[in-house]
Amino acid sequence: KMTQQMRDLQLAQARKPPGPSSPNAAKRLYRNLSGKFRVNYTSFDEGSLAGRGEKEKLRKSYLFQSNAALFEAVELQDLDRVQELLKQYSPEELDLNTPNSEGLLPLDIAIMTNNAPIARALLQAGAKESPHFVSLESRSLHLSTLVREAEQRVNELTAQVVNEAPNADCSEKEKQLKAWEWRYRLYKRMKAGFEHARVPDAPTNVHLSVASSSSVQVTFWEPLSVNSAVVTKYKVEWSSSPTFSPPLGEAVIDKLKNLHFTIRGLVSGTAYYVQVSAYNMKGWGPPQASVPPFAIPSNWREYDGRAPRRRGQAEALDHLLGQVKTVHQHCVCHEPCKNQPQSRKHSVSKSLKHLFHPGSKFLKTLKRGLYLTAIFYKDDNILVTHEDQIPVVEIDDTYSCLLMQDFLWFTKVSCMWDEILWLRQCVTVSQSSCSCILQTRFKMLLAISQMQGLLGIQDLGQVFFEPVKDKQGNILIVTLKEVKTNQTFESVRWVPICKLQTSRKSVSSPEEPTALDTLLISIQDKLAYHQRSSHALSPGLYLGYLKLCSAVDQIRVLVPEQLPNILCHVKIRSNPNISREEWEWLQKMASMEEPVPAEPEAETTQNHLFQELQVAIKELMTLVNIPLQEAKDFRLYSQEVLDFGGQVSFLLLLPPSDDVCTAPGQNNPYTPRSGFLTLPLQIFELGEEG
């Protein structure tokens, strides 16, 4: 018999027996195993070979039981238990794709009982169908054999129970009879599910887009009807002919968490047709052609052959900096430093001890002037000095009004923390001019060096976008840095932020808090800003809104609080590439004197972009609180697509030219809702570069 041969084969491979067969037995097994699966093996004697052997044997025993429990959970359609086992064990530990003695896998049972939720959970965990079912006939024959043998076993046990007198053996046979009756019903349900099922319908929403100059991407959804059988894989086919003759390639997708596929290695400028079909246990369903029906690999830069804006810029800047250093290396001010050993990198654990050195020059109070403070944090803790103070050093005690240009210069210096010594020496050369600006900036460099020396750390982090001021004439420049390591440093004091806030004794009144008190009160907001500034956008094409406002000494840009390093934006689509055809259409729209929303031809990439832009513009106008009717005077920036690393790109939406930048005193009738802030343009540029 076919089933008997499969059983012999599985037993010869020393695989597992079927385990408990009745629902009650399975439920008891679940309860008993729930605690046992989490055995602490450290109680074994690791030095003993016998102990290690027993440990391994016990581990395999529990993994064996977990495999049996998974089969039982699938058979009982216990979704919660299936999910628990998949979360607790790896597919290898569960033997997820090893058939049982009936030649079945957990996924086979799930799809033939048409339990879609369990089948999807198994598929996402990497489950496969049994390789024994090479054809519809083999699956049908196997199921018929299982049903027939289960029915025969039920008849035999029924006769034995009826003919034998009541005794212990009879009670055991009654249990076996109930178990086989339940299994007989399961196999009949699986057989009926297989016979009732049909091939799935075609996938829906098959969309084709240009991913680059050598690739296209196809996305799709599940069929509207799977016809009583879960879809277990999809097939993507492509060709340069609309009849798919000859086909150029195909790919089978069996990881169904994300239904998309990128076809790579294509020829730029060639049209490719794509279709997708779905598969279930009854076979492949009909293919569904994509919309649009074809795509031509290309990139918007091919429109005019433009090179990337930033190509070679970083290398050019490094070269320029090297030239400047070469010019200054023979200066007199450098000679005393020639014999100095190269500054060694202090380990954080050693260098942070300086925080608690009695001779440290950190300040406890402010006495009217310009100061630098460095905030190092880890989780909800902050690094403090041995006197439980945030590290503060003095920049200039005669400086009571920080000029914006000096502050912006300081933020640029923060990109060169490792070059402070060299910068100090260069500024010293020029100090003979007695420029007040140069003297202030030289004092800033001295304060940075002092902070670095006391902390033993070169990188002081990111400068907060505005200094903290008080009415007493104190100004605090704040740097922020998150410590990622979990290492416990000797003698270092990490204090919970909330404890520092409550324990500090304020020396000012609530009406006129000092800059230090203001810093402590708002420290969570500043840490949140710092963390959000490092967040990255997910890959895709975005629509950004450029809005500036000017003051006497600076220009500021509108940004969202949640992502202050990015313009106000909404996502257009997940594909960041703009094809040549799409860019040509955008150029045509931008050149029209009266922009009329002329909808492109249906079933083209341009039409799809047109629809996506309509949705994105409405969403963006709502986000920044601008009436939609005002958007008719807005325009898309048509000079280029802003590209960030190849995975994120932006189209810019600009207000009318007179409204791009709001002048001082100019009334802005449309104020954005809460959740936005304005950053100095130079600060935003530094954050965007980072």
From TrEMBL:
A Pfam family per the record: fn3
InterPro entries documented for this protein: ANKFN1, Ankyrin_rpt-contain_sf, FN3_dom, FN3_sf, Ig-like_fold
Region of interest: Disordered: 1-26
Recorded GO CC terms: spindle
GO biological process annotation, one example: establishment of mitotic spindle orientation
SMART domains in UniProt: FN3
Domain Fibronectin type-III: residue ranges: 202-299
Name used for this protein in its record: ANKF1 protein
Gene transcribed to yield this protein: Ankfn1
